[in-house]
Amino acid sequence: MMILNYKSKKALKEQIGQPLDYTETSLFGAEFKPDGVFCGCNRPYSPEYPKYDIRKGREFFASVTMSGGLISKVK
Description:
mainly beta; 31% strand; globular
């Protein structure tokens, strides 16, 4: 499952129409699709680790629809 580098699902939804900020995690090939749907989650944000905090679990999961390399829908 890809890591979505956003503080919250609301922050991700505010980026509709923009490129996705993500981290690939799969050993079996890229999960990112410039056109299509995939699932992702975040790692909790903290001031010491602005992208993610590897010491904690997940705060949200999302289904992201991409179109032309841009975010078009978040569920």
